[in-house]
Amino acid sequence: MRAVIVHETALSVVERPVPEPGRGQVLLKVLRAGICGSDLHIRLDADSSADIAAEVGYDHFMRQEQSVVLGHEFVGEIVSYGPGCRARWGTGTHVVALPLLRVDGQVHMVGLSEHAPGGYAEYLLADEDALLRVPKGLDPDLAALTEPLAVAHHAVRMGEVRRGDPAVVIGCGPIGLAVILMLKAAGVRHVVASDFSAARRELAVLCGADVVVDPAVGSPWDLGHAGMITSASAYYGAGLEALHALRSVPGVPWRRVMRGATRLGAGPRGPVVFECVGLPGVIESIVSNAPFLSTIVVVGVCMSPDTFRPTMASNKELQLRFSFCYDPADFDETLRMIARGTVDARRLITRVVGLSEVEAAFEELGAAKAAKILIDPSLHRRGAQA
């Protein structure tokens, strides 16, 4: 079979044997695979990610000197089952899968480990327990977006965004655009998107952003929402004003009323901010400029050491949360949302390429000239499009 490998930062198309499914594994014919922003980074600096992975207990993340088939976003067609499988679905069934594969009793990250080759190939192995059946009639182009949209779905859930909350998305690359799609799918009425790239701002509008900002000329923090607190005096004063109002009514148990209002979500509340850039300095910029009481969800993966001022975050009572991937329920919910049309995932797709075009696609994505490029391993002619 044909596959794209990365070795010492170089991408090349090679011939490899079709893998044989082991116990609990399923052989899939790859229909589509997505190129992820993390693939771009790992191609150039796999060792940094491997070092972090080892620190958190995963010793099999790919290293630069290894030859690895990337691709953890994929949809495939069942070809055959290995021993010990339940074989719930027949051959030819379209499925997506959590990108985790058990090999000899250890769990490996598909497309990010030498032990679990990914979707930049004509065939790959998946764990039977990780499979989700693709709803009948769903375009493989859309099903392939389940994994990146699940990342965004998980981040939006982590932010606990209410429909009336303003949401601010900093960075409109593929993950920022996915977050915008998921915010609108969740019914969030006011989404502000910020990016230096005019092309990405246009995509943000297509994905549903209500306001787009070029941070070179404007501020994403001009939210126009009543109740946003932007100074310490206003924050302290809000408490005094509430106390004054409650105490002016005889017999009102102000303590219980105030606590009850807090439990119900009344009172001052900041926006929910999604950091989708992953570069040093962005968290500090958000901490310094976001309104008081903001919830900040860090979705971008910054691989370099970074700093921010904790005392600034403390003074503003900011909540800082870090989102990485998803759980199986997120994955399943995302697939169903795509199938129902709750989220219009097609807006993310720039085009579909063959294996021989992967290197050029990496360069285009690295230059921020595309949103999401998918791979169809059956396209053998350079320049062919789906």
UniProtKB/TrEMBL annotation:
<dbReference type="InterPro" id="IPR011032">
    <property type="entry name" value="GroES-like_sf"/>
</dbReference>
<keyword id="KW-0560">Oxidoreductase</keyword>
<dbReference type="InterPro" id="IPR002328">
    <property type="entry name" value="ADH_Zn_CS"/>
</dbReference>
<dbReference type="GO" id="GO:0008270">
    <property type="term" value="F:zinc ion binding"/>
</dbReference>
<dbReference type="InterPro" id="IPR036291">
    <property type="entry name" value="NAD(P)-bd_dom_sf"/>
</dbReference>
<feature type="domain" description="Alcohol dehydrogenase-like N-terminal">
    <location>
        <begin position="22"/>
        <end position="136"/>
    </location>
</feature>
<dbReference type="GO" id="GO:0016491">
    <property type="term" value="F:oxidoreductase activity"/>
</dbReference>
<protein>
    <submittedName>
        <fullName>Threonine dehydrogenase-like Zn-dependent dehydrogenase</fullName>
    </submittedName>
</protein>
<dbReference type="InterPro" id="IPR013154">
    <property type="entry name" value="ADH-like_N"/>
</dbReference>
<dbReference type="Pfam" id="PF08240">
    <property type="entry name" value="ADH_N"/>
</dbReference>
